[in-house]
Specification:
Elements: E1 3-7, E2 10-13, E3 18-25, E4 33-39, E5 46-54, E6 57-62, E7 70-75, E8 80-85, E9 94-101, E10 113-114, E11 118-123
Parallel strand pairs: 2-11
Antiparallel strand pairs: 1-3, 3-8, 4-5, 4-9, 5-6, 7-8, 9-10, 9-11
Length: 124
């Protein structure tokens, strides 16, 4: 049974940092795209960052709103993906979800598995 479990969320002041982790189990995701999405109250779920996998290559992808502040990384040996979030802003407040896909995609509808999310609150 596939499970994605996020951790590391919490309350932080503007300008602070948090590191989110997503531990995957049930199968190896070394050949999957692993990504982070977020959903603020009353808003749609949006893409944040991803490490894309494809047979022809892959790469990192970030939403414009987080470029230069967030860094995604993965440890295939631990089946874990991380999101280092620096210079946090109140508009980063949201539930952050981990997701994986067999495709090199960053579209929520293209993800195959989802975690339950971890809440990040950035106070002003």
């Amino acid at each position: 049974q596939v499970q994605l479990v996020e951790s590391g969320g919490g309350l932080v002041q503007t300008g602070g940092s948090l590191r989110l982790s997503c531990a995957a189990s049930g199968r190896s995701f070394s050949m999957y795209t692993m990504g982070w999405f977020r959903q603020a109250p009353g808003q749609e779920r949006e893409f944040v960052a991803a490490i894309k996998y494809s047979w022809s290559g892959g790469g990192l992808d970030y939403a414009d709103s987080v470029k230069g502040r967030f860094t995604i990384s993965r440890d295939n040996a631990k089946n874990t993906v991380y999101l280092q979030m620096n210079s946090l802003k109140p508009e980063d407040t949201a539930v952050y979800y981990c997701a994986v896909s067999r495709q090199a995609t960053t579209v929520p509808s293209g993800m195959d598995y989802w975690g339950k999310g971890t809440l990040v609150i950035v106070s002003s």
